[in-house]
Amino acid sequence: MILNHQEEPNGLVQATIVPNEANADNAELFKEELTALVDNGAKNIILSFKNVTYIDSSFLGSLVVGLKYAMPRKADIYLVDLEEDIHDLFRLIRMDRVFKIYKNYNEAVKAIQ
Amino acid sequence: MGNVLSKKIFTFTNDSQTLTDSLEHALAYIREQMTDYTKAQPFISRLRWIIIELLTNGVKHSGVPQIQLNIIFEDNELILEKMDNGRPLLIAEYEDRPKVKWPVGLNYKGKDIVVCGDPLHLLHARIDQQGDASFFVEAIDNDGPLALDCVSEHFGFIIIAKASGSFTYHYDEADKVNIFRCTFDLQKVA
Question: What is the ipTM of this complex?
Answer without folding.
Answer: 0.94
